Amino acid sequence: MTALLEFQLVEVKSTRLITPHMARITFVGADLHRFVSVSPDQQVKLFFSRTDDAPEVPPRPADGDILTWHRAYLAMPDDIRPWLRAYTIRAHRPDVAEIDIDFVLHGDEGPASAWAGSAQPGQILGMLGPSPSHYATIGEYDWQLLVGDETALPAIASNIEALPDGARATAYIEVANADEEQDLATSAGIRVRWIHRDDQGPDALLDALRASDLPDGRAFAWIAGEAGMVREVRRHLVNERGIDKKAIAFTGYWRRDLTQDAAPTPDDVADVQEAQAAAVGVQ
């Protein structure tokens, strides 16, 4: 059985724009002193209430089985079951029991973006996590490749900040335009290339990667963002760059033309199975 992660309520302390379409929201909570960071790219599940009240979820099952809990969550009436979305912890300050989460703002197209665009101090969300990560079990490598769109930017930034002195890394980050770039804490061995989607089209990130000269040596690749892009980048790295499948961590954060609540496609299921198999292979 899989142990159920801790559920708690967190409260908005402050909000600020860090780019025109990225908001950083700081949360506090009575139970955040028990929050334990598990990896630079750690994620939590956030619950957004459909009402003005704090979100509620089913109680923890006696056996701690997360699948039992998830079935109970899905069985909640549609009008009260809170929306569920996954987000990266951008920063964790255990001394003051605070966390930061960055939200991409794309209007009212989804409940999370709509909420974040108007979030105010005192508002309450539910939080489950953090999720376990296989990031620390990737083995030996000479350099690291980080690839993603703006939804992956918080995790890429956290990954870069966690790199040890002397580490070599290259990041390819797709954002809408130059206004969405962020100052990242990089050292001499870390290179960041920004790809502007508005100027170069929807395949800009993959095109830039295909045209690039990557460093020599054994690489570990981390890819996240739109699921179709992640899939194509992974295929390119394996088939054209010769990177071992087991040396690639990948996650599709969102899907073009599908909502977060839509059922998984066969490609989605296959991606999850391959990611799990690769994670087992490097442990």
UniProtKB/TrEMBL annotation:
CDD domains: siderophore_interacting (cd06193)
Alphabetized PROSITE patterns for the sequence: FAD_FR (PS51384)
First and last residue of the signal peptide: none
Record-linked InterPro entries: FAD-bd_FR_type (IPR017927), FNR_nucleotide-bd (IPR039261), Riboflavin_synthase-like_b-brl (IPR017938), SIP_FAD-bd (IPR013113), SIP_fam (IPR039374), SIP_rossman_dom (IPR007037)
Domain FAD-binding FR-type: 5-137
PANTHER family: FERRIC REDUCTASE, NADPH-DEPENDENT (PTHR30157), NADPH-DEPENDENT FERRIC-CHELATE REDUCTASE (PTHR30157:SF0)
Name of this chain's protein: Siderophore-interacting protein
Species whose genome carries this gene: Rhodococcus parequi
